[in-house]
Amino acid sequence: MSVNQQTHTGPPYGQPQPGYQGYQQPAYGGQPLPGVPQLQYGAYNGPMPGYQQPVPPQGYFPSLGFPSKGCPVSLNSDNSLAPNFIGSLRTPATSGAPPPPSGPTLPSGHLAYSQLGHGDVQNGIAASAASAQRPPASQPFLPGLAPTPVIQTSAFQQYGPTPASVQQLSNDMTGMTIGRTTASAPPPAGLGYGPPTSGPPVSGSLSATGSGLYTPYTASQGPSPTSVTQSLPLAQPPFPVQTITTQRLPTQVPGFAPPPPSTGIGPSSYPPTTGAPRPPTMSGPPPPPLGQTVAGPPASQPNHISSPPPSAVSGPHPGPPVTGLHGPPPPTHPPQPGYQMQQNGSFGPVRGSQPNYGGAYPGTPNYGSQPGPPPPPKRLDPDSIPSPQLNELPPQQKPRHRIDPDAIPSPIQVIEDDRSNRGSEPFVTGVRGHVPPLVTTNFIVKDEGNASPRYIRCTSYNIPCTSDMAKQSQVPLAAVIKPLATLPPEETLPYLVDHGESGPVRCNRCKAYMCPFMQFIEGGRRFQCCFCSCVTEVPPHYFQHLDHTGKRVDFYDRPELSLGSYEFLATVDYCKNNKFPSPPAFIFMIDVSYNAVKSGLVRLICEELKSLLDYLPREGNMEESAIRVGFVTYNKVLHFYNVKSSLAQPQMMVVSDVADMFVPLLDGLLVNVNDSRTVIASLLDQIPEMFADTRETETVFAPVIQAGLEALKAAECAGKLFIFHTSLPIAEAPGKLKNRDDKKLVNTDKEKTLFQPQTSFYNNLAKDCVAHGCCVDLFLFPNQYLDVATLGVVTYQTGGSIYKYAYFQPETDQDRFLNDLRRDVQKEVGFDAVMRVRTSTGIRATDFFGAFYMSNTTDVEMAGLDCDKTITVEFKHDDKLSEDSGALLQCAVLYTSCAGQRRLRIHNLSLNCCTQLADLYRNCETDTLINYLAKYAYRGVLSSPVKTVRDALINQCAQILACYRKNCASPSSAGQLILPECMKLLPVYLNCVLKSDVLQPGPEVTTDDRAYIRQLVTSMDVAETNVFFYPRLLPLTKADVDSDSLPGAIRNSEERLSKGDIYLLENGLNIFVWVGVNVQQGLIQNLFGVSSFSQINKALTMLPVLENPFSKKVRSIINMLQMQRSRYMKLIIVKQEDKLEMLFKHFLVEDKSLSGGASYVDFLCHMHKEIRQLLS
Ligand SMILES: [Zn+2]
C-alpha cells in the first residue's frame, strides 16, 4: 500500500485536501464570493481614493551598485532626455493620448480589485497584503520611511545603499516639473519612423542625441547631461537597451536597429517616473477586507445558474406540460395544413392570420436559409406597443396570432418546473443513467460513483443498444465535458490519490484507470476491466480482500473505487522526456503601437498588472504562486525585458529581426514576482512612458507568439501568453495578414472563407505551441477588421481564451476588460494537457468540438486547459450495447498543475442502454443537445455554406421529432404536432441557434464578430450555450427588494414587455437594461438618479450607486449575474423607442428577427410541416 506515501502530495483521502484548497479559493471558485453583490463592483462608480492623491515620486532611484550583465548602462543618456520627455508626456500630444496617470479613470481597477474577494486566503504575501497602505516598492531606498517588507529588503540590500536622499527626492520632483508642458500634435504616423539616420527626432528633447536616436542605448556612455539631469544625477534610472539585430537585415546600419517605436523617443526617453504625480505602485496585494465580507456561493459557479426560490413566479405549472399540439388543418390555409395547433383542446381559438407570418414559409424546403429582405417590424399596428394592460389580458384576447404563444412550450415554464421539482434535493450520482436537473436549476451534487453533471452532461442518459436504433432516432450521442469545472463551495473537490512510484492502477489492455466499475475477481487478486473486459493482475501493493458481496473492503477508503471523479498523482512516466515539469510561466505581451498607447490601453494594462501579479494561481496552501512571469512589448519590433531580481532597473532588449524570432535573454526574462517585485514595478511604470509618443501604427503578431513560445522552450516549462493586441498585423513579418474582409460573401458559397484562416502559418504555429505547452490568451482591441478568424487560430488550438473589445475606451470598457483580465489570470488552469475519453465496448468517441489540437484521432491536446473550457465529444456505435451492462465513459485528463505537479483527473460516467426508442426520448437533455448542435453547426460553416448548415440542422431535428412521433407517440391525427416531453424546447432553442449571428447575421454584424462568437461558443458549457441562445429576461420592476431572489424570468418576446416596466436581459456576453417609456418617474429616479425618462443617460456602462432599495436590488442582481458568467458582461442601457432598441430586440429570440430569422411560432409551424413530410 502506498497511498500518500509521497510527502509532496495531499493528505490522505478522507480528509480535506490542502492540495486542492487552492482550487476552491481562486476568486471565481470556491472562494467566498460576495453575498452582498452590490458591493462587488461598486467601487467603479465611486471615487478612487487610492488614486486621487498623487504620490510623491519614489522608487526610481537607481542603485549605484547597478549590476551590469553586458547590457550597457546609460544613466547619462537617459537623464539627458528625461526632462523634456516628461514634459511632452504630461501634456498629451493628441486628443487620444494616454490619460494622465493620476487621473481617476485609470486605476479604478485597483480599488475594485481589492473587493473582488481575493481575501487573505488568496495568493499573495499574507503579511504584506494585510496593509492597504503598503509602501511603494521603492520606499526602501528612502531612509527613514516605512519599513520594507523583508522580501524586498534583501533585494535592495544586495545593491548597496541608495544614493537618494530626501533632498534629492525633492529635487526630483522639481525636475519633473521642469519639462515642457506643451507639445505639438504628433506628426502623422510614420513621420518619425524613417531610417535611424533620417533626421533629428521630432521632439526637441531628442535633438540632444542627434541622429543616433538609438545610439544611447547601445552605447551606454551617452551625451552630456542637460542641466536638469546634472542637478539630478540619480533621478532617472537608466533603462539599458540592447538592440539585437542579425545579419538578415541588410539595410540595417550595424549596431543600429530599426528605431524603436517612438522615434527619437523610444527607449531613450524612459522618463523619470518619479516626477509626475502618479498612482502609487501597487507592489503588494490589495487589501482583502471587502472580499471577506461577502459570500454568494451560487453566484460563483459559471455553470451553475443561480436561481433562488422563484418567489415572483408562479409555482409549478398546473397540469401536465405541453407535449402535444394538435388541431385540424385550417381550411383557410390550405398550403400550410397543420399550422393551427391546439393543445389537447386547451388552446385558444384559432386566430386570424398575421400579416407578417403569411408567406414566411412558402412551402419550400429551404426554410430559414434565405434571409430575404428585412421583414417589417413584427407589429406595426398600435398593438405593437405592449402595455401592462395588454399583457394582463387572457391569451384569447391578444391580437392576431394564429397560434397562441402561451400554448406552445415555454422555456420559462420548463425551467421553473425543473427548479421546483428538482432544486430542493441533492443530485446523487449513484444511479446509472440518472438524468440530472437542468443547468438552470440550482442544485447540489453528491458524488456516489458517477461524475457530477458539472463535469459531464450527456445528450441522452439512455443510449440505444444498436447503431440502427441510433440512426433511426437521429439523436446525437454526445457528452459535454468540462474537466476542470469549478465547484460550489458546498461540494467536495476531487481527491488526489497517490499510488507512489507505481502510479495509478490501470487495465493492461485499454489502459483505463481504476474506477468504481472495475470488477475485482479471484478474491481480489485480479480485476476485470469494465471497458474492454481484459483481466489484469492487481499489483501487490494494491491488493485488498473482498467482502461477501465481492466488494473490496477498502471500497469507501479509496476515491477511485467509490467516486465518479478524482485525481491521481502522475509519475515521471507521465511527463515529457521522463522529467517532472517545471512550474509554468505567464508572459504578458503588450502591443505598444499608436492605437494601444493612444487609447490608454498600455497604461491601463501596466497599472493593472502591478497588482494583478499578486494573484497568480496558487496551489493549495502554498504561500506564493509558483508561476513565473515575463514581459514583452511590441509593435513591429519586439522589446524584451530583463527583470531579474538582482537588477535595480529593468533592462530592455529590442529584437528587430522578426523574420526568425529568437529570445535575446534567457536569464531574467521569466522571474518570480516576489523576487523581482521592485524591478517589475519599475518596468510597469516605465512602459507607458516609454511609448507615450509612439507613432508606430504597424504591428506584427506571429513573431510575438513565436517569441513567447521560444521563451517557454528555453525555460523548459509550459505556460501561457497573455497577448494584448490592437490591429491587423500588416507589418512585414511571418504571419503578416491583409484585410480580406468582404461582407459581400455573406450568403454565398464563399462565405465559409470568412471563417477560415487566411494562411496556414498560424495552424503550424499552433501545433508548435501545443507541442511545447504554450497556451495563448488573446485580448483584442480592434478599431476595425483585424481578422479574428486568423488571429484566433493559435488561441483556439492551444486551449486559450479570446476576448474582444471593439473601439476600446477606458471610460466605458475598462471595467469589463479588467474584470476579464483578472479572472483570466487567476482562474484555475492546467498545462500541457492531454484528454482521452475511453468508452465501454460498443461505442467510441468519434468526434470532438472545442478549443484544442488533435494530432491523432483519440487524444485531445491542450497547451492550456482552464476551468471554463468545455469539450463536446460525440460517440458512435461500433457494436451492440447491452441493457444489462449499460455504457461507460471515462475521461482522463493528464495535465500539469499551476505548481508544476503532473496529475491525472479522471471522470467516470455510466449510462443506461435501451432497446425502446421511448426510453431514449425520455432520458434526453435538450440543453446539452443544443450545445452539441450549435458546435456542430458552427464547425460546419468552415466547410459548407451557412444555408446548407441551417438546412441540415433543421432536417436532423425534424427527423428526431418525426421518429418520436412515429415510434413513441400514441396514434393521433397528422395535424397534431407531438413533441417528446424532454425535447419540447428543441424547436425554440434550435430556432435560436439558426438565428444566431454566425448562421444568420444581420447587416450590422461584422465578420470579426461572427468569427469571435463562433470561437466562444465552441468552448462553452451547457449553461453558457443555454443562456447565450435563449437569453434570460427579468422584469426588474417585479423584483422583491426584500428578498435575495431574482424576479421570475419571462419569455423573450417583445409582447411580454410592458412599457411601464424595466427589464434586464443577459446572454453571457451582454446585459441590457431596457426601460419602458411609461416607467414611473420614481423608479427612474431610484435607478438612474434622474428625474425623467428623457434624462436617462443611455451611455452608462454601469448603474449609478444610489442608496435606495430598488437601486441596491438591481445592482445586486447585475452583480450576481456577473459572478455567474465566465466573462464580464457589458451593460447596455436601452430606452424604449430609442435607436439602440433594435440591438436589444435582436435578443428577443422568440420574435421574428430583422436578419430574417423566424419567430418561434413560425418556426414551430415550419418544423411541424417538416415532420409531417417525413412521416408521409
Ligand atoms: Zn481495459
Overview in brief:
The chain is built from 31 helices and 30 strands. With 1176 residues, the protein is of the alpha/beta class.
Number of DSSP strand runs? 30
Share of residues in strands? 5-15%
Helix content: 25-40%
Number of helices: 31
Rg from alpha-carbon coordinates: 31 Å
Shape: globular
Largest sheet: 8 strands, mixed
What does this entry look like structurally?
This protein is of the alpha/beta class and 1176 residues long. Helix content is 26%, strand content 13%. The strands form seven sheets. An eight-stranded mixed sheet has the order 1-16-15-14-13-17-18-19, sandwiched between helices. Strands 6, 8, 12, 20, 22, 24 and 25 form a seven-stranded mixed sheet that branches. Strands 5-7-23-21 form a four-stranded antiparallel sheet, covered by helices on one side. Helix 19 links the parallel strand 17 and strand 18. Helix 16 packs parallel to helix 21, helix 23 packs antiparallel against helix 24 (946-967) and helix 23 (926-940) crosses helix 27. The structure holds zinc ion. Zinc ion is lined by residues 507, 509-510, 512, 529, 531-532, 534.
